[in-house]
Design a protein that fits this description.
single chain; alpha/beta; Aspartate Aminotransferase, domain 1; Aspartate Aminotransferase, domain 2; 2 domains; seven-stranded mixed β-sheet; three-stranded antiparallel β-sheet; 12 helices; 12 strands; about 40% helix; globular
């Protein structure tokens, strides 16, 4: 296995800063906001009260009930607490879901709309399945179509990993398009839908009027075979807490909880009151952060439009822009680096202009000409960093 491309770039940024370079980092998908004070206080209070012992594998009942209520109320996914397990981040939940649905050695295939987050493909392969990428065209805002989905399904298909809003594309599918894709999936009874909805609250109708989130688990024909994955990392600025969760049909949930009991058991017990606080009393904080991200999305897209010979889809969700820089392949940088790929473009940009971006190769075959920029950073960082990018690109020959 290769290491995560995003984490690899993060390590390069640390190394460059250690050398004294002033690096503008667009690499990590991590909000620059602090965790809201009321959420932190809930954990502090629980810790002070001695909530430091083992918890049930799936988590304290109160936190599971809060998650179930949230999914039922907000997502239209009818959920009881015993269908929920709380995991060590959403990545852990996706890992377990894939381990549960894939039978190694059987020739299973799992579909992956791409460009897609760098960890999905390795997680699919670790489970023992072949990853079948379905490429979303930049002309269609990186979104796949029902006809593409239908053409990718065969007798070996056991699952699909779905992610909207999307990392790395920074787009959310309109609800009508998700329903159309769900219609197609409903024709194939053995396909399990793993829906990663970690960015669900970071949608910007200010940019795409009428845009809303739609959960595949709310689709009647798929409810009995959808595993909904989410967490508190992105919307609540809680990345370091490592709080994820999944909800599944009860028979699936029981098996997933058994698997978790042989892996990590529970997350720290004093986090559970913080989960309840986040889901029941933090909507204002989430909205404040969402509105700032929407402003940054516009700023990032307008700034990228000033960079010569790149193509970019306007981000309307999450906190990423994913421009195509392939028009610059074949050129040479000021320090004589030959630009032949997104990787060499990103490496030279960091070395020469001290701007960190994530190259597109690990986001899918269709993303080899792209780079990912996170705007989970200050407006000044966006303006400064893209200006450095613009100047450096103009110097390529």
């Amino acid at each position: 296995m290769a290491e995560s491309a995003t984490l690899a770039v993060g390590a390069k940024v640390v190394a460059a800063k250690a050398k004294g370079h002033d690096v503008v980092a667009f690499a990590m998908g991590e909000p620059d906001f602090d965790t809201p004070a009321n959420i932190k206080q809930a954990a502090i209070t629980a810790l002070e009260k001695g909530m430091t012992k083992y918890a049930p594998t799936a988590g304290e009942k109160s936190a599971r009930e809060a998650i179930a209520a949230k999914l039922t109320r907000e997502n239209g996914v009818p959920t009881a607490f015993d269908q929920v397990t709380i995991t060590a981040g959403a990545k852990h939940a996706i890992y377990m879901a894939l381990q549960a649905i894939v039978e190694p050695g059987r020739g299973d295939e799992v579909l992956l709309p791409s460009p897609a987050w760098v960890s999905y493909k390795p997680l699919i392969e670790l489970a023992g399945a072949k990853c079948i990428e379905i490429a979303g065209a930049v002309e269609n805002g990186f979104r796949i179509t029902p006809s593409q989905l239908a053409a990718s399904i065969n007798a070996k298909t056991v699952g699909i990993v779905w992610n909207s809003p999307s990392n790395p594309c920074g787009i959310a599918y309109p609800a009508v398009e998700v329903r159309a894709l769900c219609d197609e999936l409903s024709k194939h009874e053995k396909i399990v839908v793993i829906s990663d909805e970690i960015y669900e609250k970071l949608i910007y109708p200010e940019i795409a009027p009428g845009l809303t989130h739609f959960s595949p688990g709310s689709f009647d024909a798929l409810r009995h075979r959808t595993i909904t994955v989410n967490g508190l990392s992105k919307s609540y600025a809680m990345t370091g807490w490592r709080v994820g969760y999944l909800a599944a049909p009860l028979a699936m949930a029981k098996e997933l909880i058994k698997l978790q009991g042989q892996m990590t058991n529970s997350i720290p017990s004093f986090f559970y009151p913080a989960i309840v606080e986040a889901l029941t009393n933090s909507a204002d904080s989430v909205e404040t952060m969402r509105a700032r991200f929407a402003t940054r999305a516009v700023l990032m897209h307008e700034a990228l439009a000033t960079v010569a010979d790149i193509r970019s889809v306007a981000p309307n969700a999450a906190f990423y822009a994913f421009p195509d820089v392939s028009a610059h392949f074949g050129k040479t940088s000021p320090q004589a680096t030959k630009i032949t790929s997104a990787q060499s473009f990103a490496d030279a940009l960091l070395e020469e202009a001290h701007v960190a971006v994530v190259p597109g190769e690990d986001f899918g075959e269709c993303a080899r000409g792209n780079i990912r920029l996170s705007f989970a950073c200050t407006e000044a960082n966006i303006t400064n960093g893209v200006e450095r990018l613009r100047t450096w690109v103009a110097s390529l020959r």
